[in-house]
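User: quick one, fold this
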Amino acid sequence: MPPHPVSGFTSGPDLDHTSLPLESCRPASQMVLQWLREQRQVIIDDWVEQISALSSFYRQRFREELVGTITEAFEANYEVLSSCRFTRIENFINYITILRLSAGFPLSDVQRAFELFRFIVIRRLTVSGLHDLLAQSLEPINVCLAYTIHRFSDYFQRMHERSLREHAENLERKINLRTAELAAGERRYKALVEEINDGYFVLQDQMILFANQAFCRMHGTTLEEALGRPFLSFASPECREPLLESYLRVLEGRSAGKQMQYIRLGVPQEKAATEVKASVVDLGEGPVVIGICRDISERVAMESKVREHERLAYVGHLSASLSHEIRNPLSSIKMNLQILARKLYLGGYDRRRLEIIVHEVSRLEVILHQLLDTARPMTISLAPVNLSVLAEGCVDLLEVKAQEKKITIIERYSKVIPLIQLDAGKLEQAVINLLLNAIEATPEGGRITIWTKAGRKENRHLELGVRDTGPGIDQNQVANLFTPF
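Assistant:
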């Protein structure tokens, strides 16, 4: 009674399970079949050992799997040899084709594995001296193996082609899906890059390959003008060497993602501070540098104000301490000098010298008082003031000083000017300072003009100005015009 098929070996849709008689197929003799049944386990064990050494593909399979498949191969061959029925061998061919094709086995390896059955049987018959059985077994074994190998090769080729078609179709679906995803990603990427407020750029060999609209706006250029242009040409000359060094460090991977700063050209100085962060990526055509630049002019200005306030706070604290320490001995000196001035009889220029000393001590007290003003919060005392009257009073105080340098002060005051609420003392101090600066800067024989003017009803404002014929303020000093001390 033939053995039952091993579990898992079933037919495929492409196979015919009817008996497949061949004109050349003749059952093996009963003596050959009896010998095969007696040698069954020995042949299977030898087959397992031989197939494990056949190739690396078989060596990687579990022994239990090899034992199972070779046992079924033996039983299927035995069915053909005993009855010329090919149903079981067809089912096995279908199963082993799927198994080995999915594992990536070469066709030749599986063909050689089938041929091991003939090799092992012939060798064992030869060694045992059973030449009569050898002669009786050669023809049916050859017919069985020829059929098996031919059918397997045919099935393997058909399934391989089908697998290739399915793989190609699967690849096509994946490519179409990936293409759609890439297109959507590109649209999202472009929308993101173009919508961000920060400048985005791509560099290769220091040249701009790509830039978004924010980058162009920040640097006062168009995309057409930016492409192909050296990135360093957008930075002020003093920033180019440090930027180039940073660029080379980024290429070498020593400062990827590190923030750098530079001053942009083509924009006002106070709005040109820029921060840039860059890194190296490979987009498939060699390494490129991608970067994001950000306008930090407002932050820099704020930091400058904070530092200035901190400095002023420190100076104010120091000024208050020094003023308190100096004020008392200075008051004592002034009081004693005034007493000496009344009691001593000094002739000639000596009395003038004493008056100068008293005057300078008084001036020092004023300076100390001003220093104390910086150390305490400013208080504003508002009251109705006529700007023309205030300006005229300031000129009266300094007219003699202007005459000493033969400087003419021209006064042009509005006849009808409304009163305005302001701190007269502090504004008077500001006007006097302007006039003193004008007298100092104007050459001998020059002119100083001071004026007041009222705006129209629809443009309500008052104007107070001082102009001189001096050389003006050095442009390098304009930024420091309102810096204290």
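User: anything notable?
Assistant: Residues 334 and 359 are 9 Å apart (CA to CA).
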